[in-house]
Specification:
elongated; six-stranded antiparallel sheet; alpha+beta; Aspartate Aminotransferase, domain 1
């Protein structure tokens, strides 16, 4: 059986393909203690990266455009993973939208916490559903705009064809297309 991290990365690849995102739009990063960069990771974070658009040549990517979906900590000597999701992602009741077992949830004013068995047969589907939820609920950091220069091609395709699907979540015409309203056919 493959490691939970391999399953997570596989689920990321599937979502990147499904939503036509750039290769590193979703990523898993290891978090180390301040003075221990070579030892065992303290935890892991699944993040969504909103690439600059238009892309700024030669610039370092803006860390403010990284959005933490969930933080994961491996519990020692068990098969459990401790999951932490910030309330800021929860635009609706997460217990209705994401398959988090009711009896495992604890929360405070900033986060919800639960555990999951990393060897569970449905782990990959579960982690994929969490990331997909975040992708759907995520609101681009770009200012809202009516449409871009591709609006006629988007109309012909019946969907947004912008190269940066995360940035284009701010497009008003994309929202109309997703609602079945094509204005420029």
């Amino acid at each position: 059986m493959s490691d939970w991290k391999d399953k997570t990365v596989n689920a990321m690849r599937e979502l990147i393909k499904k939503y036509e995102l750039y290769e590193d739009a979703l990523y898993l990063s290891a978090n180390y203690e301040k003075n221990n960069k070579e030892g065992k990771a303290k935890s892991y974070t699944i993040s969504l990266w909103e690439k600059d658009y238009p892309e700024i040549t030669g610039s370092v990517s803006n860390p403010d455009k990284n959005f933490s979906v969930v933080n994961i900590t491996e519990k020692d000597k068990t098969n459990e993973l401790k999951m932490v999701m910030g309330i800021n992602i929860l635009r609706t009741n997460v217990l209705e939208d994401v398959p988090i077992p009711d009896d495992m949830v604890k929360s405070d004013t900033k986060s919800i916490y639960w555990t999951i068995d990393k060897n569970s047969d449905n782990f990959e589907a579960y982690i994929k559903s969490l990331m997909e939820y975040a992708l759907i609920k995520y609101e681009s950091k770009a200012s809202a705009f009516g449409c871009c220069s591709l609006y006629k091609k988007c109309s012909e395709a019946g969907k947004c064809i912008h190269i940066n699907k995360i940035y284009s979540k701010s497009c008003g015409y994309r929202k109309n297309l997703e609602g079945g309203n094509i204005f420029y056919a």
